[in-house]
């Protein structure tokens, strides 16, 4: 049996993985453990086979094992991300803001969300405020961000479009 394992292992190591047939045996039922009529006979005998993915064969009434070839290197299948349904982004108006539970600000700072030290002009900018203790919200397609004061439980943010 060790000789058989060495023969089959050599086949696997040499990458000539076409198959491995057990040694010559008298082809009579009951006289040899390797006798078969169908591949399922070999599977039922719990015979040892090479360490490769494959299946039993029955050639000339002798059990054999045929290794399946697997392409190398194995590449993961390409999976396309599911398409996101397009969001019908409504313009932010007093109505869409308040309809989503936000707080409309007619005269907010143009510097909102700008990095510290940025030169800003002093003009009014309209935006929808969110967050805070009251839990103001944003319309669909917008996210609450740019919180002031940053990290505070009652910080107020502004609604900005979700970037996909």
Task: Explain how this protein is built.
The protein has 164 residues and is an alpha+beta fold. The chain has two domains: 2-67, no CATH class; 94-161, no CATH class. It is 15% helix and 26% strand. The chain has three helices and seven strands. The protein has helices at 2-13, 39-44, 94-99; strands spanning 20-21, 54-59, 62-67, 103-109, 124-131, 142-148, 156-161. The protein has a four-stranded antiparallel β-sheet with strand order 4-5-7-6. The radius of gyration is 36 Å and the shape is rod-shaped. The protein starts with a helix and ends with a strand. The relative contact order is 0.12.
Features:
164 residues, alpha+beta, 3-stranded antiparallel β-sheet, 26% strand, disordered N terminus
The amount of helix comes to 10-25%
Number of strands: 7
Question: Which percent range describes the beta-strand content?
Answer: 25-35%
What is the overall silhouette? rod-shaped
Number of helices: 3
Largest beta sheet, briefly?
4 strands, antiparallel
The helix/strand class is alpha+beta
Stretches where pLDDT falls below 50 for ≥5 residues? 1-19
Distance between the termini: 62 Å
Using the CA coordinates, give the radius of gyration: 36 Å
- Structural domain tally: 2
Strand order of the largest sheet: 4-5-7-6
SSE arrangement, N to C: HEHEEHEEEE
| Average pLDDT | 75
In short:
The protein has 164 residues and is of the alpha+beta class.
List the SSEs and their pairings.
Blueprint: H1 2-13, E1 20-21, H2 39-44, E2 54-59, E3 62-67, H3 94-99, E4 103-109, E5 124-131, E6 142-148, E7 156-161
């Amino acid at each position: 049996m060790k000789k058989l394992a060495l023969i089959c292992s050599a086949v696997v190591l040499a990458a000539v993985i076409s198959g491995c047939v057990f040694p010559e045996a008298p082809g009579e039922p009951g006289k040899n453990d390797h006798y078969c009529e169908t591949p399922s006979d070999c599977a039922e005998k719990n015979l040892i086979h090479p360490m490769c993915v494959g299946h039993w064969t029955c050639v000339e009434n002798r059990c054999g094992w045929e290794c399946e070839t697997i392409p190398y290197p194995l590449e993961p299948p390409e999976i396309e991300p599911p398409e996101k349904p397009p969001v019908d982004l409504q313009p932010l108006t007093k109505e869409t803001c308040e309809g989503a539970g936000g707080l409309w600000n007619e005269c907010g700072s143009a510097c909102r969300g700008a990095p510290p030290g940025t030169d800003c002009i002093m003009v009014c900018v309209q935006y929808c405020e969110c967050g805070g203790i009251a839990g103001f919200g944003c319309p669909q397609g917008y996210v609450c961000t740019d919180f002031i004061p940053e990290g505070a439980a009652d910080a107020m943010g502004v609604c900005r479009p979700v970037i996909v």
